[in-house]
Amino acid sequence: xxxxxxxxxxxxxxxxxxxxxxxxxxxxxxxxxxxxxxxxxxxxxxxxxxxxxxxxxxxxxxxxxxxxxxxxxxxxxxxxxxxxxxxxxxxxxxxxxxxxxxxxxxxxxxxxxxxxxxxxxxxxxxxxxxxxxxxxxxxxxxxxxxxxxxxxxxxxxxxxxxxxxxxxxxxxxxxxxxxxxxxxxxxxxxxxxxxxxxxxxxxxxxxxxxxxxxxxxxxxxxxxxxxxxxxxxxxxxxxxxxxxxxxxxxxxxxxxxxxxxxxxxxxxxxxxxxxxxxxxxxxxxxxxxxxxxxxx
Length: 296
Hints:
Layout: H1 17-36, H2 39-42, H3 47-75, H4 81-114, E1 119-124, E2 127-132, H5 158-181, H6 185-211, H7 221-252, H8 262-288
Antiparallel strand pairs: 1-2
Helix pairs in contact: 1-3, 4-7, 4-8, 5-6, 5-8, 6-7, 7-8
């Protein structure tokens, strides 16, 4: 019969969301560039805030609209075993790209710590710039990592607590997965609730840690590398928590089955990735980075 589907693939119809997402991404990055280049002086009416706000609103709308359609496709039976396999490949590649993203921050951390350079941020008429002190103050200006005067955070205080919290969250999300596979929907919901609560607790403790740190972002390589590495991990924890909240809402709607639950599986993979990255951050940034120094 003409038009009959005789394959296992899901051919997507034309959709407006990819275009909306691309335009929103462009608007968002434009707003961020305006913000980072002190657009307040060039646009006293706050135009950059409007541009940035529109970009963020467009991205949120894209996430909601596009992902809602993917959920509807899954519930309609369009995600055949072949489609699910390819979605798994896509999630694996996405996590691999995230791994390389964090490799960049770890690379910076090791570069700054093993080969410290006397670089400081100084204010000029054209704004802040990074200035190399070699040639101005000679060998006496050689930097330390962390720089002299910085009180590092105690690795075995809040960071250790957060490590235990994330390790526990890894067990609860695994428990939820096993409950789903065995048809225990009540256990699935309890496991997700616990994992989400632990994720929120981790974020709250990290926010408290940041508010009580003796150094702010920028000014030297240590604080910049510290906040970029741990801050982006914190952002990933926030994204993963939202991911799990969506899975919890779908669990209450009865969307997942023991044989078809890739949405939850992808969230669990992402959460385990976040756990592993934190273990490296804890050892490298908090323990090794502050070894032998007086903690704050």
